[in-house]
Amino acid sequence: MLPPQASPTGKIIRFGVFEADLATGELRKSGVRVRLQEQPFQLLALLLERPGEMLTREDLQHKLWPGDTFVDFDHSLNTAVNKIREALGDSASTPAYVETVARRGYRFIGTINPETIHPGTIGRGTIDPRTNDSAAATVAAALPMKDASEHKAAAFHPELNIPLPHRAVPRVLFALVQVMYAVFYVEALLHWRGADSALARFLPASAAWPALAAVFVTAAVGIALRCYLISAVAFDYQYLRINFERIFIPVLFLDELWALSPFLAADKIGFGFAFAATAALLYVPFAERTLLRMAYPAKS
């Protein structure tokens, strides 16, 4: 179990453009407060107080989740680490601050600003305050450049090589896509007679009824699917990406089938617009997968 340790320089620890106020439980970036829940902040504080030192998962469990606390520890710890990385703009594959030691624990690898280092604390990512003035000045001068390069590396998505957005953006866009499909399904069921007429115009009589039956069945399945995806992204379910990739082929088939739905309203919106809408909808399932990759990067 981790023994208590005093915070360096009182209650504030500064690293890069961030500072963690251990007294108030606040994280700030360039003086602006960054939203971070209590438990992730406590985990960050533990890592900051022991820079360069690996804290095992067992140590963290004893410290943050006592034995009388009934939680899914692995899920809670992974969620807390993800929240920290989100707040810091960090990534699991190219970490600038929080490094994962596979199946063992985590360590803080960023550079603690010299004025917040506790005398005698020497480790990876720290500076020995007992060095001579010229050496300390040289290291201090190099810190901003190092922090800037680390921040720049952490600002890109580890898989997609694009600027890393705030996770709320792809999550909201993904939810809106699910709402769009749900509206398609409900509209088709509410106006099934119109759908029947539209199918009769495009298909022979022998195929119109099977096609209408397919509309009913896939709409029912689609409504259940969209309810699951909306609720999962709303509650930030950490395994949503994994589950979505497992069912991607059936979802792709369903979405590609419903990409033809604009033709059901071709008499109202025009054939040209229906064709353009279908072309756009054909890409949407691939966009869904990309949005989930942006919101839930692969864990190391």
Topology:
Layout: E1 12-15, E2 18-21, E3 26-29, E4 32-34, H1 38-49, E5 55-56, H2 57-64, H3 73-88, E6 98-101, E7 105-108, H4 133-154, H5 168-190, H6 192-202, H7 205-234, H8 240-246, H9 248-258, H10 266-269, H11 271-281, H12 284-295
Antiparallel strand pairs: 1-2, 2-3, 3-4, 5-7, 6-7
Helix pairs in contact: 1-3, 5-6, 5-7, 5-12, 6-7, 8-12, 9-12
Description:
- There is one protein chain.
- With 300 residues, this protein is of the alpha+beta class.
- It has 2 domains: 12-154, Winged helix-like DNA-binding domain superfamily/Winged helix DNA-binding domain (Arc Repressor Mutant, subunit A), CATH 1.10.10; 168-295.
- Helix content is 56%, strand content 8%.
- The chain contains 12 helices and 7 strands.
- The strands form 2 sheets. The protein has a 4-stranded antiparallel sheet with strand order 1-2-3-4, with helices on one face.
- A hairpin with a 4-residue loop joins strand 2 and strand 3 (26-29).
- Helix 5 (168-190) runs antiparallel to helix 7 (205-234) and helix 9 crosses helix 12.
Produce a short descriptive summary.
This protein is α+β, with helices and mostly antiparallel strands.
Q: Can you name the CATH architecture of the largest domain? A: Orthogonal Bundle
Distance between the termini: 25 Å
Q: What number is the mean pLDDT?
A: 77
Describe the largest sheet.
4 strands, antiparallel
Shape: elongated
- Radius of gyration of CA atoms, rounded to a whole number: 26 Å
Tally of individual helices: 12
Q: What structural class should be given to the helix and strand makeup?
A: alpha+beta
Percent helix: 55-70%
Low-pLDDT segments: 1-9, 117-154
| Major sheet strand order | 1-2-3-4
The string of secondary-structure elements, in order, is: EEEEHEHHEEHHHHHHHHH
